[in-house]
């Protein structure tokens, strides 16, 4: 029966529709492939609200808090609780064997920085499946590292692509050209394999990151590196003063969660840059601290503090890594990329 016939006959529609609906939800249940729309209390309008707020799948609902869902959708607490519980019931929550994780770890690869010292500091390079954060003062090399990782990713895997989210308007195609030539990569091809998006504010930035999943799953792009330069500048500019700090941190937390998820699910390297600010109450040691506090610090798998050294050199200090010792190395930013200083 054609769709037209169905629609033209209200009686038929009444008879047919519930049957179809029931069949669909049963088979879907079996396959544990529910969508957000199948959750109790979620109609089209609520689903739309959820999706536009970035809740794209059941996992997002399953790990959401009651408050977040109520705020996003305007449903009652009871309904929000039902939604969360149903989402949790519908999925296998989390347990993997150590063997599963070891197998996943075997898929991890490392992107070279071009500097042997820096690679060694990082246990071979910047890891996929993880978030690496570089923070440091202006001119310390954060943006340069983003450009360098991009071309090196493309060089190492001829089918890989890069997503570059630029919040400070510092992405430079000319620099990519220069670096690509330096490692024997066709500059035009390199530029074609880097997708750049300018984020105009923190919401836009969050949305762009949420779209990366779609690029991979729906458009079949093999994205192996996601750069956000800078992670925190919009958040810092938009939320000023103590009153708004909690709200900012909550949003940053969600953002970091999305980043971790996309990195982990698709085994891609997430590289984020972060600024430092003065610590007014610090009299000894380093008087600066990174933006975003514990939320960003905890969510980043690897954290590197960059500073300017003597005679134009740069010092990278690994300050947090799951399986590497804290250490330092020295390098230089040159025309062709990073080079060691011994
Ligand atoms: P902010 O974004 O301002 O916080 O700084 P950043 O940490 O991103 O600094 P960035 O990566 O932009 O580093 C800039 C530094 O890299 C410059 O001061 C130069 O020393 C160096 N640099 C950039 N491009 C080149 C280049 O083509 N050749 C050489 N030799 N050095 C370069
Ligand atoms: Mg920069």
Summarize the entry for a quick read:
The chain has helices spanning 3-8, 10-30, 44-52, 58-62, 66-73, 77-90, 98-107, 116-121, 142-156, 173-182, 187-192, 202-217, 233-238, 245-265, 293-299; strands spanning 110-111, 126-127, 131-136, 161-166, 194-198, 223-229, 269-274, 276-278, 288-290, 302-308, 314-320, 327-334, 337-340. It is of the alpha/beta class and 342 residues long. The chain folds into 2 domains: 3-91, DNA polymerase, domain 1 (Orthogonal Bundle), CATH 1.10.150; 103-340, Rossmann fold.
Keywords:
15 helices, DNA polymerase, domain 1, Rossmann fold, 13 strands, binds guanosine-5'-triphosphate, binds magnesium ion, alpha/beta, 2 domains, 342 residues, nine-stranded mixed beta sheet, two-stranded antiparallel sheet
Q: Could you explain the architecture of this structure?
A:
By secondary structure, the protein is of the alpha/beta class. The protein folds into two domains: 3-91, Orthogonal Bundle (DNA polymerase, domain 1); 103-340, Rossmann fold (3-Layer(aba) Sandwich), CATH 3.40.50. 47% of the residues lie in helices and 19% in strands. It contains 15 helices and 13 strands. The chain has helices at residues 3-8, 10-30, 44-52, 58-62, 66-73, 77-90, 98-107, 116-121, 142-156, 173-182, 187-192, 202-217, 233-238, 245-265, 293-299, and strands at residues 110-111, 126-127, 131-136, 161-166, 194-198, 223-229, 269-274, 276-278, 288-290, 302-308, 314-320, 327-334, 337-340. The strands form three sheets. Strands 5-4-6-7-3-10-11-12-13 form a nine-stranded mixed beta sheet, sandwiched between helices. The protein has a two-stranded antiparallel ribbon with strand order 1-2. The protein has a two-stranded antiparallel sheet with strand order 8-9. The longest helix has 21 residues, at 10-30. The chain starts with a helix and ends with a strand. 33% of the residues are buried. Mean pLDDT is 87; it is low at 1-32. The site of magnesium ion has 4 residues, from α9.
């Amino acid at each position: 029966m054609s769709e037209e016939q169905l629609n033209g006959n209200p009686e038929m529609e009444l008879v047919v529709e519930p049957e179809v609906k029931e069949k669909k939800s049963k088979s879907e249940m079996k396959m544990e492939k529910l969508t957000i729309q199948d959750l109790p209390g979620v109609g089209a309008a609520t689903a739309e609200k959820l999706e536009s707020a970035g809740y794209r799948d059941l996992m997002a609902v399953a790990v959401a808090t009651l408050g977040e869902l109520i705020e996003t959708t305007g449903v009652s607490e009871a309904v929000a609780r039902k939604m969360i519980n149903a989402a949790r019931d519908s999925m296998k929550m989390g347990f993997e064997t150590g063997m599963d994780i070891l197998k996943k770890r075997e898929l991890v690869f490392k992107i070279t920085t071009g500097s042997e010292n820096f690679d060694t500091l990082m246990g071979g390079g910047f890891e996929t499946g993880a978030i690496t954060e570089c923070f440091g003062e202006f001119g310390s090399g954060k943006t340069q590292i983003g450009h360098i990782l991009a071309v090196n990713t493309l060089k190492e895997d001829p089918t890989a692509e890069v997503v570059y989210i630029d919040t400070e308007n510092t992405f430079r195609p000319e620099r990519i050209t220069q670096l690509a030539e330096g490692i024997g990569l066709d500059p035009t091809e390199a530029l074609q394999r880097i997708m750049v998006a300018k984020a105009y504010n923190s919401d836009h930035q969050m949305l762009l990151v949420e779209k990366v999943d779609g690029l991979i799953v729906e458009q079949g792009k093999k994205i192996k590196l996601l750069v956000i330069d800078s992670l925190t500048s919009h958040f810092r500019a938009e939320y000023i003063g103590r009153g708004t700090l909690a709200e900012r941190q909550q949003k940053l937390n969600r953002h970091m969660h999305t980043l971790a998820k996309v990195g982990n699910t698709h085994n891609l390297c997430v590289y984020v840059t972060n600024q430092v600010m003065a610590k007014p109450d610090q009299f000894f040691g380093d008087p600066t601290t990174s933006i975003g506090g514990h939320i960003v610090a905890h969510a980043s798998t690897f954290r590197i503090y960059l500073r300017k050294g003597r005679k134009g050199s740069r010092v990278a200090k690994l300050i947090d890594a799951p399986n590497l010792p804290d250490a330092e190395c020295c390098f230089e930013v040159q025309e062709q990329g990073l080079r060691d200083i011994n």
